[in-house]
Amino acid sequence: MSEPVLRTENLAKRFGGLTAVDNLSIAIPPGRIHAIIGPNGAGKTTFFNLVTGMLSPTSGRIFFRGHDITGLRPHAISRLGIKRTLQVKSVFPELSVADNLWVTRQARSRFLNPFRAAASDKETRLRVEQTLEQTGLSALAARSAGTLSYGDVAMLEIGMAMISEPSLLLLDEPTCGMSPAETSRAVAKIRDLARTIDIVIIEHDMDVVFGIADDITVLAQGAILASGNPAQIAGDERVREAYLGRPEDEDFVEEAAHA
Ligand SMILES: Nc1ncnc2c1ncn2[C@@H]1O[C@H](COP(=O)(O)OP(=O)(O)OP(=O)(O)O)[C@@H](O)[C@H]1O
What we know:
Layout: E1 6-15, E2 18-28, E3 33-37, H1 44-51, E4 59-64, E5 67-68, H2 74-79, E6 82-84, H3 97-112, H4 121-135, H5 150-162, E7 168-172, H6 180-193, E8 198-202, H7 206-212, E9 215-220, E10 223-228, H8 230-234, H9 237-243, H10 250-258
Parallel strand pairs: 3-8, 3-9, 6-7, 7-8
Antiparallel strand pairs: 1-2, 1-4, 4-5, 9-10
Helix pairs in contact: 3-4, 4-5
The structure holds adenosine-5'-triphosphate (ATP).
The site of adenosine-5'-triphosphate (ATP) has 11 residues, from β2 and α1.
């Protein structure tokens, strides 16, 4: 079996008396889109925060392609090739789409080697162009980010995570707030990206989850409730129960029926 892209061993995070992530042992294989779903408060975002070093675990270990990354600082984890998007969008609204990508890329090169900044301009330009294409934003390159639609801002966020060529991309509810048309465009783009990069996605929209994921892990109260392919998850009684009776998640039952 190939090395998991991400693996945790008894990972736990407690906030005072609250256990947000509860002895989680998960192995995410490479080359697939892995969705993490679960009711509100299940620990999904906390899991991303632990993987990216934004939070330190209370106990347990995290491995990225076999390397123990537990306790590394966020910038060190980012340099190893793990990037994420946040639920709260963080583009620079006054800058153009291309310049948002440019400064994100340049910030990284300058950080890596301040003396190479000028020499890297050409390479940056190329990478910005590639990322505009990958995210479907080429036609909007000159537009101020502050004037974009919500869906385009979300794609720009993905582009800003992609521009430094990570090998693992963590997407936190990428289609949240998008129109149905924007959502299907984003889903197609994320599928394209997954050909060259490993993707783990937290998503509430079950239409997206069942349409995009190769594998799904369901979290509840910080622990794994179920894991499997979309058909297995759709047919899992415990998962249905976890979602039933939650009006905001009614679409799970509906979408699962079509999976
Ligand atoms: N910094 C923090 N301090 C205290 N409690 C926190 C903190 N971050 C998260 N929690 C709590 O940990 C639990 C898990 O939260 P988390 O945001 O990881 O869930 P989630 O599955 O991402 O939820 P949602 O789907 O609503 O985003 C929740 O009860 C939350 O209130």
